[in-house]
Amino acid sequence: MHAAVVSYLQVALDVPLQRTFDYLWAGPAPTVGSRVVVPFGKQTLAGVVVAVSAELDPARGLTVAQLKASQAVLDDMPPLPADILALCKFCSDYYAWPLGQVIAAALPGALRQPQPWQGGQALQFWQALDVTALLGQLSPRAHKQRAVAEALAVPRSIEQVRAVAHDGGRWLKEWIAAGWVVEAVPQADTAPPQASAHPDLTACQASAVARLNAAQGYQPFLLYGVTGSGKTEVYLREIEARLAHGGQVLVLVPEINLTPQLEARFRLRFPHEHIVALHSGLADGERTRNWLLAAQGRARIVLGTRLAVFTPLPHLALIVVDEEHDQSYRQQEGFRYSARDVAVYRARQAQVPIVLGSATPAIESWRNMREGRYTLLTLGQRAVTGAKPPQMTLISTQQQRLFDGLTQTAINTLRDCLDAGQQALVFINRRGYSPVLACHECGWIASCKRCDARLVLHREDRRLRCHHCGWESPPPAQCPDCGNADLQPLGFGTQRLEETLTGLFPDTPPLRIDRDNTRRKGSLDAMLQQVHAGEARLLVGTQMLAKGHDFAGLSLVVVVNADAGLFSTDFRAQERLFAQLLQVAGRAGRAGLPGRVLIQTRYHDDPFYPQLMSGDYAAFADRVLQERKANDLPPYSAWAMLRAESKTLMRAVTYLREAVQLLRTQPGIHAGAPIPALMMRKANQERAQVLVSSSSRPALQSAMRFLMGELLQKKAPGVRWYIDIDPSEA
Ligand code: ADP
Ligand code: ZN
Ligand code: ZN
């Protein structure tokens, strides 16, 4: 009798430890990348096999007797391919985060569970080759069979077939065997048989597409063009070319809200391609299905938000990152990463071209372009003939009185615009009614008991709300300090502007669009429909409205209180403000109407504004780069932030001091002293941070990895810490 086959597995688990774990498997070696179920302490966990061997590696320092057995090898997903495992390994090193947790983040939720996923059947879609011929084979009285056959005129999943008739699955099997029914690509019910028209490319677009077509292997491109210059059209052409060669394409977008629009545009252009979306707004089952379709190479276009960057794509041929400067590409919880940066690494790893598109590229990307690492593709003007850049005007709120937040100039211009039958957008980056509720008698201000923050007054439901921790209460009837009953709202939010505008333009009721009234699924879409249909002509909104949307009738944008970002302590604040204001401005005059933008500011003579008004982002970006270089700021120096929070500041700071001691043993690293975070108290936690920097990226990486390993070993009850590499907030 010969011994049973035994394999030794190294498994990455979703636990906060910087190591993999060893298990026995009584059977032939599973493929590396397979999902397994293993015991872990008292728990049962799912993990991913990262190494397999026929003998126990002595370097693991374990005896066979110490090993527990793996309970199951699951086959509900294709094993994670080597390139995705390598990508996760890279991220684990770069972002100093445990490999098991990185891998977990790369998988859809259902494939992180220690049970097999049952939804796999629904992956296949079936369609009758010829419905009439199939019906001819069936008895005229087999009504249910005939109903199923008729349903198969368009692609159906097995679930859909079973919904038509309980026995549908069995008949389907017979018909497939007989060759009457074949596997098909699912389509949206509304997919048109004909692809939408290809507009003639402008000269700039044509030259950009030609250079993309010629790209072989890894080549990063920065596609720089104002909103409306036709960047999306360039993506579509290049995607078409890569699909024609059998490739798969990954398209990243910053916001879930933008995916349905873009998805619709892609479906119109590629009605016969299998397109899937991947974002956190999808139900677990759908997301898992879409992910598997991509991983099997069956979905050919993957449209997704940051988490999609880890999707396995066996035929990956092109990556597109739209609005590459956008903050939403940064994951700010748990495993903190920048999906744009990971996408660039992935393109290099897969040896495929990548297009980073933006009207206001990130300073990091701009530098890579200036230093020759990225190829610049510029789209000079708006694509639609006759569409000109909007005309921008500054209005000083020091020189003009404000009427409920608006200057007379703004009010007059809004009136002219609405009288002319056009649409206008009033932009303010603050939701709620008023950001401050104050007592004029004693100076009391409503503030959050759990954060160093003021409470925002929301009038609709009469609540004071903390936008940082979510705490809320009804506004007090009188000042809690002096009893004064006349508490005053100070400053403006979207709700208060809505009230102002309702008073000013009773015939054109404003439509407010912000996070507060678009939480319900579909509500944003419904509102956007109203805008597109011209039913809503006066819009009030936050940055939700600034990105991506294409409103044909919009000719005027009024920016209320632009200044908030101007004097921030964060060295990136101006870059962001520039991008945001240019984005909002880009909403005006997209489809031929001349656009106007009015910016109300207290600081009209700040040097920031002339550059913004000229719309010359390139000049601005070059100046910012020089400043960063002169001051040794990122991207000229590599930064990491170590943050800690605890019930008391003292505890967080003490913890960080010990971390700084550890860091100082590392070469080439500068670790500052722990300081309180900008908002020191948040949700009843006191927060402190340490800035770690180095002129050498590898030195920073290895020091942070070392630090993570040490900190994970250290018991520090009541202290939560995390490492933020390339922090986007100082
Ligand atoms: P961006 O992605 O840079 O904002 P889009 O690709 O969305 O720009 O183009 C803006 C508008 O111009 C869209 O309505 C698009 O259909 C149209 N467009 C793009 N390229 C052309 C072209 N070559 N000819 C005519 N219209 C175009
Ligand atoms: Zn008072
Ligand atoms: Zn709070």
Automatic annotation (TrEMBL):
Binds 2 zinc ions per subunit. Keywords: ATP-binding, DNA replication, DNA-binding, Helicase, Hydrolase, Isomerase, Metal-binding, Nucleotide-binding, Primosome, Zinc. It catalyses: ATP + H2O = ADP + phosphate + H(+); Couples ATP hydrolysis with the unwinding of duplex DNA by translocating in the 3'-5' direction. SUPFAM superfamilies: P-loop containing nucleoside triphosphate hydrolases. Residues 212-379 form the Helicase ATP-binding domain. Its EC number is 5.6.2.4. GO terms for cellular component: primosome complex. Pfam families: DEAD, Helicase_C, PriA_3primeBD, PriA_C, Zn_ribbon_PriA. One of its GO terms (biological process) is double-strand break repair. Zn(2+) 1 binds at C439, C442, C479, C482. Zn(2+) 2 binds at C448, C451, C466, C469. Its cofactor is Zn(2+). The keyword Isomerase applies. It comes from the Bacteria. InterPro entries: DEAD/DEAH_box_helicase_dom (IPR011545), Helicase_ATP-bd (IPR014001), Helicase_C-like (IPR001650), P-loop_NTPase (IPR027417), PriA (IPR005259), PriA_3primeBD (IPR041222), PriA_3primeBD_sf (IPR042115), PriA_C (IPR041236). Component of the replication restart primosome. Initiates the restart of stalled replication forks, which reloads the replicative helicase on sites other than the origin of replication. Recognizes and binds to abandoned replication forks and remodels them to uncover a helicase loading site. Promotes assembly of the primosome at these replication forks. Belongs to the helicase family. PriA subfamily. This is Replication restart protein PriA. The gene is priA.
